[in-house]
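Fold description:
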Amino acid sequence: MSVPGGWWCTGPSWAGTEPGLGWYSPGRGERRRSALPAGKALAFALTGERRCLGVWRGARWTACPYAAVVDSGVTRDQCADCARLDRSRSVAADTMADDPRTYGVYLAYFGPGLLKVGITAAGRGAARLVEQGAITYAWLGHGPLMAARRAEALLGSALDVRDRFGKAEKRAARAALPPVPERVAALAGLHTAARGLAGWPEALEPAAFAWTDHTEAFGLERIPAGVGEVADGPAAGDEIVGDVVAGVGADLYVRGVVAAAGAEAEAEAEATVFVVDTRLLAGWVLRGATGGVTTAVVRAPKGGAEDGQGSLF
C-alpha cells in the first residue's frame, strides 16, 4: 500500500523548554520542527485520514507496511502491528534489559497529591520531564537501567508512589497549583522518605535534593481559569486557528474564536482559550486553514457551561 504524500505531523516536539510540532515527509525522507513560542499564530486544517507513523529506531524511520488508518481519538500514533514491533525493543516495555546507558530516577510534581516516580536515560537530561508536563521535579539517583527500575518499583510498593497520571488529572491540577515553596516541600519530603527505604539498590548513586520548576518555561501564569478543550477524536476538515498562549507537555494552549451555530453567533463570538493535545495531531497531514475560526469541536470549561458538565460551544 502506498504511503500518503505531504508533510505528516509527528506530534509534540520540544527543544529545551520551547514547545513545537514535529514533521516528517515520507517522499523526501526529511524531518522538520516548527517552534511554537507564545504569541505564534496557528491556522491549520486536518486533511485526509490519520495514518500510522510506523516505527522510529534512532534516526531511522520505517514506514507502516499497511499505511494503516489510526483511530483519531487515541494518543498512540501507531497501528497494533507497528506498536508491537516498537515495544519489542523498548525500555518502557521492559524489553531492553541489556541497555548499557546510565539512567536517572526522578520525582515529578504535577499538582497537589500528584507526585510520581519515573526513569529516563541520563543522556536526555530533563527532556522527559518537559514532555510529561512536570511542573516541578528533582532527581533521586543515577545508575544502570535495572537498578533504576528497582528503585522505581520500590517507591511504588513501599510508598504507594504512582508512575503515571492521565492528562485529565494533570490539566485539572494546573488550575489549582500551590506556591512553589509548597511544591518543593512535597518533593523534599518524598525524596527524604525514598532515601530512607530499606532495599535501596546498591548500584544506584543517590542524588542530593535539588529542585527545578517549570512555571516560567511553560508559561503557566499565562493560562487563565476556565479553559476549553478540543475534543478527543478531531476529524478531517477540522481547523484550529488562534495564537499560542502556552505549552505544557503535549498540551498546547491557544487563544482564538471557536465557531458557533449560525452566522450571527459566529460574528459575535469572542476569543477564548482552549487546549489541544498535540499527540492527537500525529499521523495527520496538516495544511493551511481556509477560515478565521476554529471549527474543531471544543468542550466548554467544566463548570463554565449552564449544566456545569462541559457542554459543546
